[in-house]
Design a protein that fits this description.
heterotrimer; A alpha+beta; B alpha+beta; C alpha+beta; B: alpha+beta; Ubiquitin-like (UB roll); FAD/NAD(P)-binding domain; 7-stranded mixed beta sheet; 23% helix; 27% strand; C: alpha+beta; Gyrase A, domain 2; Alpha-Beta Plaits; 24% helix; 34% strand; SoxG_het (chain C); Sarcosine oxidase subunit gamma family protein (chain C); SoxG (chain C); TrmE/GcvT-like (chain C)
């Protein structure tokens, strides 16, 4: 069971308080009706499925209730960082640097 | 005193006799004995039969690694457990134990015929033998395997014990309370850290318990140990014995199982049998020590052949001589001390047989001085004795050639093949290992966890090395936690570190095919099996393991892994690190299901949510069904009624007069804020802008893929406040989905969501008399068609209680849902129930609710929809706002696939023969087509007669909306049923019954 | 048969030498959500709205705990409920927010006794030491979302939704006896 840092509570807490919420930084088009079938399919169904650091969303569902973003390594399962929704993506190279 | 008990030895209390039974025979042991030590004290070595060959077996070890001596224990009624290690189970007066894998008796076993058929049962036996003929599988092979498989017998009674669990947070967790762990604990505790020290044994001390000769800081080991434990407790260290660290999970979460009652004759009240601890430690010190390896030679499994270190433990900890005329067989110095200790306790040591040519002169001199015969450069090639070893055959080895054999009469063979560091938990951390050629074993390298491994676990032998490394690693941990640790040194006298060599199977003069040299005792895997596996093409150690089952027994190869690896790598002609080690997986030792279940069993297996009205239903003998975590009343049978009869009565009464239904479980969400209506427009398919306060509307929620996710009636309580209802099972999911869109996509909207599912108890009244019944209780609104039409909502008072009143119907009858603060639910229900008697009010459950709604063609999301159904597929295009710029699912609905013709559409079905269809049954257009038939849909809902003339069904059928009146077919195992496609509305298509 | 939670009367439900579980009297409970300038709401409610999650304030008999960046839970005597609703309604037009009555949604258990904190470790995975006395948190207890108010070193209040209450009480009751049976 992982420990997850909630950027809103500023506490590192057991995974059971959290819920996974799929890949991050996939914005819903502002005007979906203007989007082509291909682009809509891309938005709905396509995910990066990377081996290694993945941007993803979690919700502190049994705590403060906020959705937030995280970078997590899909190989080790470990969180590299978490950050508030709306904050820019952190630079991956600086995050993985510390691991080596 | 028993025959083999040595007075003045051991930590047992010989003044307190304990009587227990083994296979029905009564034995006497003493307080502090395990079953194994007590049986050995009585001269009993034969404790079980092996798994595959049913060979007689005795204890080979003294601890939790024991592969052979698995017994059944009975601790009173219902408390039977198979596969308990006799070396772990402590005895008490009245304990009943039994051997396993024997028929009819331990001493004479019919299954031992397998042993004679040894050649047939070699590696890959199951894979090869049971391949053909296919028809043999059911009748011959499977029954045979089932009868032969498994260790012991499963308990047949429900376990009356209770189990517990707890979470624990600490700074430092230390696994293993031997010298390493004790020194580490001291280092951390003196810095004021929260320290937990655990050990699987009944008492802390580890190897110190077996080595009383040692002196630490001038004190005898046992005195030092007692003082040290007192000191640690005084420093606040939580010392937990009989507690096994079973697993190491991510980020220093360690699972511990604490055994609390198995060693007690009387069960204390309110005490669980076992407790699972989930420990989250900032730092972990692994000090699990090392396990002694057996030597691999023909007959090394005979009762009386055991590990030399274990023999020392039986002597020094339990005061038991495992034999009076033992012979030592070793490749390591450690066993020489076993010889000396046993001799000091009165044994006549027959010989020390060492595979090595060169042995420490001090040991040789000591043996010589004691008059013990020493045989260097010797191998062992056989043992004899039927149920207990009576001799060992040894042969000199010179220049790789095995010379002629010599029999040594003995009553025990004490072997040592050196030591294997215990790396199980370290491996759970995904720690990397390095091969160490000197020690012929893997040693720990790096781990991604905040964890250190110390002492014998990393190949350091001897008490002094263990104490020093424990202190050093303890200090490292202290410093990692930001404190400054002190350097501590321990002075140890009479230490026995020792060295040795490691072997594959010992050289032999027997023909290779005949030798039964066991590597894995529990799974009966021999050296020959491993070599055969390599010959037959297995190259990876993982394949060799699975083909031979080496290391796959409940002991997970604690003794066999390195011996197995040595043999496999020799057969492959590769070095051990190129062949690799199999992976250790949790749990470290077999763990009861009870420990994992903890408090969650029986009625508390999981949360059962109940409404305030549930207790009324229970008192009325309702039959319940689970809906999500809720239990809901399904129907209210009268004496003699089955479900169909009860449901038919409840349906009829509701359509005839009035039915009362507990709808409290419906999900409810309060949507509040200036942007509430905009949020509703974006979330739901329906338009909300023009819905006036005081009115409600059926809302349909899609995913962005265009498929139906949920539905419910939504009331606009005021301009900026909506009372949203969801399905019972969907409540949490819908709220999460709404929060997701709100927080992530539309953070600019000024609106907030609050779950009010449990704020309200909801009583639904349906039927022609519903308004008449309810009206007298309602203050604030008149229940007429004009003042409170269908799909109205209002805050008012009902029976003196603050209420939100909705006029809605899920039955097609005049319907009201009265919401009152949850704790007033039953009071409201009883008030209406009493008043409803004049109308013959009938309580109905979910089954009747389902029938009544199906008669009206109202869908149930998740039953009539399956995540691939659009509003149009359900004939609910009317609920989709056509003029809105966007809503969740709008773009999805425009996808070509969702616009396609011939999608599966929801229709009604009436069978031609009036029978009831099976829910889930597949539908075809042409029943005469060849199998496999083209399936065009399935039955989603089907009910026996409610208030219709015949059973009705709803179904999804390809292009169904265009096929009204056509016949489809439902092939069943015994016949094919024809059914006519109809409208989904079976009752009152014009909705005349909704009017007051 | 399990009695409905509404039939529980305030007082001690289970106790031993180790710990005690009580049932708190009913009170008015509100979920308050707001963003931006909180001063008008603070004025209306007569208490400050702390912005650090876990922080609590008390004003008279009103107690408020910050649960999220824009979320608070407010407890007050039952008779005070209508006044709170009215006060908030009074500032809604200029300072939109969400005030939802959840008085009926939840009940509270009072947990204390020498090993009160340990009793909570039966169901709570988070380190309770990280909740300071005088603070509170929403967390998970035995699978149910709860709010823990830490009132003292070993005394807590646990708010849970009605339908989870009997399940959670069963565990607390078991724990009260289990802890007492332990020799320390």
């Amino acid at each position: 069971m992982l420990l997850i840092h909630c950027p809103y509570c500023n506490e590192t807490l057991p995974e059971v308080e959290f819920a996974y919420a799929s890949e991050a930084h996939i914005a819903r088009p502002a005007k979906p009706s203007d989007v082509s079938d291909e682009d809509w399919a891309e938005f709905l169904f396509m995910r990066s499925n990377v081996k290694g650091p993945l941007y993803e969303r979690w919700r502190h569902i049994h705590g403060c209730g906020r959705f937030f973003n995280a970078v997590r390594d899909t190989v080790t399962d470990k969180f590299l960082t978490t950050y508030k929704a709306g904050d820019p993506r952190p630079d991956l190279s600086s995050l993985t640097e510390g691991l080596k | 005193m028993s025959q083999y008990r040595v007075s003045g030895r051991g930590r047992v209390d010989t003044s307190r006799a304990v009587t227990f039974t083994f296979d029905g025979k009564s034995y006497r042991g003493v307080q502090g004995d395990t079953v194994a030590s007590a049986l050995l004290a009585n001269g009993v070595h034969l404790m079980g039969r092996s798994f595959k060959y049913h060979r007689p077996r005795g204890a080979i070890a003294a601890g939790s690694e024991e592969p052979n001596a698995l017994i059944g224990t009975r601790r009173g009624a219902g408390r039977f457990e198979p596969n308990t290690r006799a070396t772990v189970q402590e005895i008490w007066d009245g304990l009943e134990t039994s051997s396993q894998n024997k028929f009819p008796s331990l001493k004479f076993d019919v299954g031992a015929v397998n042993d004679a058929a040894y050649m047939l049962f070699s590696a890959g036996f199951y894979y090869k033998t049971f391949m053909w003929p296919r028809s043999f599988w059911d009748k011959v092979y499977e029954p045979f395997i089932r009868a032969a498989a498994g260790l012991g017998v499963s308990p047949t009674e429900e376990d009356p014990d209770h189990y517990a669990s707890r979470n624990l947070h600490c700074d430092v967790l230390i696994v293993g309370a031997g010298p390493t762990g004790l020194a580490a604990a001291r280092a951390a505790a003196v810095e004021g850290l929260r320290v937990v020290l655990v050990d699987e044994n009944a008492e802390a001390g580890g190897t110190l318990l077996s080595e009383p000769q040692a002196r630490i800081d001038g004190k005898p080991a046992w005195d030092w140990l007692a003082a040290e434990l007192e000191a640690l407790k005084a420093l606040g260290v939580k010392v937990m014995t009989r507690t096994t660290a079973i697993a190491y999970y991510h980020q220093n979460l360690i699972g511990l199982v604490e055994k609390l009652t198995d060693h007690l004759p009387k069960l204390p009240a309110d005490t669980p049998r076992e407790r699972l601890w989930r420990v989250r430690a900032k730092q972990v010190v692994l000090a699990q020590g090392a396990l002694e390896k057996p030597l691999v030679f023909h007959g090394n499994d005979r009762p009386g052949v055991m590990l030399a270190g274990s023999a020392q433990t039986f002597l020094n900890r339990y005061g038991v001589l495992v034999g009076k005329r033992p012979v030592i067989l070793t490749s390591h110095d450690a066993a020489w001390y076993a010889a000396f200790d046993l001799q000091d306790a009165g044994a006549q040591v027959q010989a020390i047989v060492d595979t090595r040519a060169d042995v420490d002169a001090l040991l040789l001199n000591e043996a010589r001085a004691r008059g013990i015969a020493v045989k260097l450069s010797h191998t062992a090639t056989a043992t004899s004795g039927r149920l207990r070893v009576s001799s060992l055959r040894i042969n000199p080895v010179a220049g790789g050639t095995v010379g002629s054999g010599q029999e040594i009469r003995c009553d025990a063979v004490l072997m040592s093949g050196g030591w294997t560091p215990s790396l199980h938990l370290f491996s759970h951390t995904k720690g990397s290992l390095t091969w160490d050629d000197d020690r012929t074993t893997f040693l720990p390298n790096n781990t991604p966890e905040d964890c250190v491994i110390a002492g014998a676990s990393r190949g350091l032998w001897g008490i002094e090395a263990a104490l020093a490394d424990g202190a050093e690693k303890g200090r490292a941990v202290v410093e990692a936690l930001g404190k400054t640790g002190a350097q501590v040194a321990y002075a140890v006298e009479a230490d026995r570190p020792g060295t040795g060599v490691s072997h594959k199977e010992l050289p032999t003069d027997l023909s290779a095919g005949k030798a039964k040299a066991f590597v894995d005792f529990q799974n009966d895997v021999t050296a020959k099996d491993l070599r055969l596996a390599v010959r037959e093409g297995m190259r990876s150690i993982e394949h060799v393991k699975r083909y031979t089952t080496n290391g796959m027994a409940t002991d997970q190869g604690k003794m066999s892994n390195i011996n197995g690896l040595n043999i496999a790598s020799d057969a492959l002609g590769k070095k051990q690190p190129q062949v690799g080690l199999t992976t250790f997986r949790p749990p470290y030792t077999p763990t009861s299901f009870g420990a994992f279940a903890g408090y969650h069993r029986g009625e508390h297996f999981e949360v059962t949510r109940k409404t305030d009205i549930d207790s009324w239903a229970e008192a009325k003998n309702a039959v319940f069904e689970p809906v999500g975590q809720w239990r809901r009343a399904r129907y209210f049978p009268k004496p003699g009624e089955d479900m169909d009869a009860a449901v038919r009565r409840e349906c009829a009464a509701t359509r005839a007069s009035v039915g009362i239904f507990d709808a409290s479980t419906l999900g409810k969400i309060e949507v509040v804020g200036p942007d509430a209506v905009e949020f509703m427009n974006r979330m739901y398919t329906n338009p909300w802008t023009k819905l006036a306060p005081g009115r409600c509307r059926y809302g349909l929620l899609l995913g962005d893929d265009g498929y139906i996710r949920d539905d419910g009636v939504i009331g606009r309580m005021s301009e900026d406040r909506f009372h949203v209802t969801t399905t019972t099972g969907g409540a949490a999911r819908v709220l999460n989905m709404m929060e997701d869109y709100l927080q992530t996509e539309w953070p600019d909207l000024n609106v907030w969501l609050t779950s009010t599912t449990e704020q309200w108890s909801t009583v639904a009244l349906n039927g022609p008399d519903a308004a008449k019944l309810l009206a007298p209780f309602v203050e604030g609104v008149e229940l007429t068609e004009e003042t409170f039409p269908h799909m109205s909502c209002v805050e008012c008072t009902v029976a003196g209680m603050p209420a939100r009143l909705f006029r809605v119907s899920f039955t097609g009858e005049i319907g009201f849902e009265v919401n009152v603060p949850a704790h007033l639910g039953r009071k409201l229900w009883e008030t209406l129930w009493d008043a409803g008697q004049q109308y013959g009010i009938t309580a109905y459950g979910t089954e009747t609710m389902h029938v009544l709604r199906a008669e009206k063609g109202y869908i149930i999301v998740g039953q009539d929809t399956d995540g691939t159904v659009t509003p149009y597929d359900c004939g609910m295009g009317w609920a989709v706002g056509k003029k809105k710029p966007d809503f969740v699912g709008m773009r999805g609905l425009a996808r070509p696939d969702l616009q396609a013709k011939n999608r599966k559409q929801l229709v009604g079905l009436l069978t031609e023969d009036g029978s009831k269809l099976e829910e889930g049954a597949q539908i075809v257009f042409d029943p005469k087509q060849a199998i496999p038939m083209t399936m065009v849909g399935h039955v989603t809902s089907s009910y026996d007669i409610g208030t219709t003339d015949q059973p009705i069904a709803l179904a999804l059928v390809a292009g169904g909306h265009e096929k009204m009146g056509e016949t489809v077919y439902i092939p069943m195992p015994d016949r094919t049923i024809a059914a006519k496609i109809t409208s989904t509305v079976f009752v009152d298509p014009d909705n005349t019954r909704l009017k007051i | 048969m399990t009695a409905p939670i509404s039939s529980f009367t305030p007082g001690v439900l289970a106790h031993s030498d180790a710990a005690r579980v009580g049932f708190a009297p009913r009170c008015a409970r509100f979920s308050l959500r707001a963003r931006g300038d909180l001063a008008p709401l603070e004025a209306a409610l007569g208490l400050s709205l702390p912005t650090r999650i876990g922080q609590r304030v008390t004003a008279g008999e009103r107690q408020l705990l910050c649960l999220g960046p824009d979320e608070w839970v407010l407890h007050a005597p039952e008779r005070d409920g209508a006044a709170i609703t009215a006060a908030c309604a009074g500032v809604y037009a200029d300072h939109p927010h969400s005030l939802v009555d959840i008085s009926g949604r939840e009940v509270s258990f009072v947990i204390d006794g020498p090993r009160g904190a340990e009793l909570l470790t039966l169901g709570c995975a988070r380190d309770l030491d990280s909740i300071a006395v005088g603070e509170g948190r929403r967390t998970l207890f035995d699978g149910a979302t709860v709010i823990l108010w830490r009132d003292g070193d070993t005394s807590f209040r646990l708010d849970c939704w009605n339908s989870f209450a009997t399940h959670l009480f069963h565990l607390l009751d078991t724990g009260v006896r289990e802890l007492a049976a332990e020799s320390l």
